[in-house]
Amino acid sequence: PKEIFLKDYKQPNYLFETVNLKFTLGEEKTIVSSKIVVYPRLEGSSSPLVLDGVDLKLISLKVDGKELKEDDFLVDSRHLTLSSPPSGKFTLEIITEIYPQKNTSLEGLYKSSGNFCTQCEAEGFRKITFYQDRPDIMARYTCHIEADKSLYPVLLSNGNLIEQGELEGNKHYAIWEDPFVKPSYLFALVAGQLESRDDTFVTHSGRKVSLRIWTPAQDLPKTAHAMYSLKAAMKWDEDVFGLEYDLDLFNIVAVPDFNMGAMENKSLNIFNSKLVLASPETATDADYAAILGVIGHEYFHNWTGNRVTCRDWFQLSLKEGLTVFRDQEFSSDMGSRTVKRIADVSTLRTYQFPQDAGPMAHPVRPHSYIKGAEVVRMYKTLLGASGFRKGMDLYFKRHDGQAVTCEDFFSAMRDANGADMSNFLLWYSQAGTPRLNVVSAYDAQAKTFSLKFSQEVPPSPGQPAKEPMFIPVALGLLGSNGKDMPLSSVYHDGKLESFANNGQPVHTTVLRVTKKEEEFVFTDIPERPVPSILRGYSAPVRMDSDLTDADLYFLLANDSDEFNRWEAGQVLARKLMLSLVSDFQQNKPLTLNSQFLNGIKSILCDSSLDKEFIGKAITLPTEAEIMDIMEVADPDAVHAVRSFIRKQLASGLKQELLDTVKNNRSSEEYEFNHPNMARRALKNIALAYLGSLDDPEIIELALHEYSTATNMTDQFAALVALDQKPGKTRDDILADFYNKWQHDFLVVNKWLALQAMSDVPGNVENVRKLLDHPAFDLRNPNKVYSLVGGFCRSPVNFHAKDGSGYKFLGEMVVQLDKLNPQVASRMVSSFSRWKRYDETRQNLAKAQLEMILAANGLSENVFEIASKSLS
Ligand code: DPP
Ligand code: ZN
After folding, report:
1. Which fold has domain 309-429?
2. Is the pTM of this model over 0.90?
3. Is any atom of ligand 1 closer than 6 Å to the C-beta of 260?
4. Ligand 1 atom with least separation from CA of 121
5. Of 29, 64, 607, 682, which residue is 20 to 30 A from 373 by alpha carbon distance?
6. For domain 441-458+485-546, is the CATH number 3.40.50.720?
7. Pocket of ligand 1 contains residue 133 by CB under 6 Å
């Protein structure tokens, strides 16, 4: 396979005006008839028309009503080429046969648990019919579906239902028409035995929209939270961005077999059931929060993705970065902004930064979701909320109905604000995480405080040398009383800028760091301040500074920016963990300094703080985060050290943790609201700490919490606490949990994941046994993500020095690739960081990658990741 580059983009020679699809859904095969009105982009030009098509059986091909002769076209395994189509506008009619029942890739049209559904992003439509399957081909669609009435009573597609009726032989049909132009990746079809939860939403301008969430009948009671989330999202997008829904009907369908989380098909979102179905008894607070965020995300795509779409797949961040940012903001407004920011930054550090530093490093363009959202956030940081809104308004005004690029988004932001954002676009093209170093100096005589920034972007594959980036640094200065000092002015670039704000004191400012090295000197600073730098994590960089431990403890106790309070604790924890890792590697005894324990204690016992924030602030950085900042990642040492600190904190703060558990139990009914969730979160983090102790009293406590829990959040947390120690109690409780919940596949997936992620020595054998458990099925992505994906997240077992973990993953990837290349390629990416480990592990992982690459009939998805990882 040949790699495709952004610079190779060419406008299509032919455009499509209308697309009429007809599906005859059957048990053996499905017939797809497609009638497309085609015209050349440039009048009078003639060139071959090349259509994409994979795994299709061509039955008939007509141009302007006439069947084409064999010499007039060419079909190979990926394309259908018409060598000399008519020179003007013409009608192309194609009939193909497909086999959705045999489609285990879950791309294109497939059958899942008895129902038909589609997944077309990015290139699934070419598995349905021959088409120019690229996002810059936007057309108006109708979709006619014909199927057995008893097996498939519900027939759905995009847009409005314009006709339906009965047919002979117990069949029926429905015709859907989508008035908006769309690219093929947003096409969707669903047919099956489904029922809906119905509601309505009246838009700002008075349009009454029918909302329907479709699931098998028995799951309907579990869709209440999804409906609540949808209505909240619709309201929020009107309030914050002035964006209204544009049709009279909005459908969501939940399916159990789905490669990703969800898909924003125009007016017919298709979701992984995991992100729709919830009840207090079966879903945790984290599930509820994820549902809120993803329902919002897919809904927000209606404007950012669907009305304005991507020109090509290198522009993925145009819709994903922007829409992830929008869903983050939505969740922040619905809960705690600081806690949401902390959670998002942790994700960035655990998943994105490691990738940025490895062979799979790529810039925001083509396809980094989370970093793309950080880039959008920086526009808002630089332009302010109202400037950002102006930019969004201009973006829609200019590009509604178009397929555009990241530069178009940038231009709208810049032009709407007349802003100078010179090298900001580098965020889209330069891969790697910038390093920002800060050195401070106080001049008591001149009463100035200087901050010297220097930045560097590490080399990445194909990009050996980098330019300096445009880094917005939000900053405040704390006085010795712990309060923010008012900022009056700063010298920079030979100019004195004052922070005038209509006579109001300014406490946080945003510095624009754009050069390799540059200095900012604050004036009128009466005493040496402690700087709070990168407030709210204003740019996705790795920052080093000359802040002392004392400064960090001071920020942890006092910073008015809650994010940086948390961050100060994390920096301290990272330093501590790295130094203990080095002790561990030198066989020195490990000890925990009392200052750290006291810092955690004072946060834990500070009743003025938000409980969810406390939970975050007493949680140590993940093992993946620490491995990412080590010269050579040492999973055993990192795991030993993190477990050691957890245990020390648990024994040193046992009473405080016990009190936290007792004082935060809830007796009332489950509610999804911030205070209740925060209380559960804190209680359960305390319980998890306690679970690290070898203490019969704690086992009693956890068993008590388990048996008295009235919701899944509390029940699962108790299970997690008990899962930490191998033995009979653990085995019994895991068996009990399965017996209770075996009828509910979403709960069973939690049970699989918990066991897969376990640090119990030699766990690979248990995981292998679970492959044969009736609860497991290699064809269901969620189960694979739980069991195989979960296993790869356990540093000790996945990276076991005997190679057993790598061998397991190698075998799984080869098996999975035959069924579902997308799922297999997600799994293989756990190998992509193999060079970060010691030589023994490197050789073991490399051998598995080579074994995978040597496998017969390897998919392109897996080939790409495995070969890039090795290069
Ligand atoms: N476009 C899809 C989404 O935004 C891909 N997972 O969720
Ligand atoms: Zn998305």
Report:
1. Neutral Protease; domain 2 (1.10.390)
2. yes
3. yes
4. 1
5. 682
6. no
7. no
